[in-house]
Amino acid sequence: MIREIIHDTAMLSIPADPADESDIAVADDLQDTLKANREICVGLAANMIGINKAIIVYTDTDTGEQFEMFNPAILKKSSAYEAEEGCLSLEGTRKAVRYHKILVQWDDRSMESHTRAFFNDTAQIILHETDHCHGILI
Ligand SMILES: [Zn+2]
Question: Which of 59, 62, 64, 61 is nearest to 30 (CA)?
Fold first, then answer.
């Protein structure tokens, strides 16, 4: 189901609770809401649709395919740079320090753990959305 985007920064500043198999419907709604906004948005976190669970979805900007992560954790980051980025929950663009290479651990919707490196644009999106799970806004 396509959900309304939350713009209340007080709500968006609350760190998310861990997600589990009971939150699969949330991931489905995130996928639908990202798809509906794909012209203007490449990633969403669950608190952006009003659910305070650590789930993100992002678009692979090379293939256009959408992926989801439950409980994403950034294990390593290297090669910092200053990015300018927007957020569907916020007005305009803001500067943020991002990393060209990150190592991420996450659970899939069956609660199986995965660890993988991501680079450049995809790393930037995952960092932005994982920040949302910690209540951090750009
Ligand atoms: Zn955002």
Answer: 59
Six token digits for residue 137: 């806004």
> Would you state the pLDDT for residue 115?
98
136 C-alpha to ligand 1 centroid (Å):
9
Number of domains in the chain: 1
In a domain, 79, yes or no: yes
Q: Calculate how far, in angstroms, residue 69's C-alpha sits from the geometric centre of ligand 1.
A: 15
Distance CA 76, CA 101 (A): 8
Low-confidence ranges of the chain (pLDDT < 50): none
Write down the pLDDT at residue 61: 86
Residues with CB under 5 A from ligand 1 (ion): 87
pLDDT confidence of residue 3: 97
Catalytic residues: 129
Domain limits at 23?
Answer: 9-133
Distance from the alpha carbon of residue 18 to the mean position of ligand 1, in angstroms: 19
pTM of the predicted model as reported, rounded to 2 decimal places: 0.96
Query: Does a structural domain hold residue 67?
Result: yes
Q: Output the CA 115–ligand 1 centroid distance in Å.
A: 23
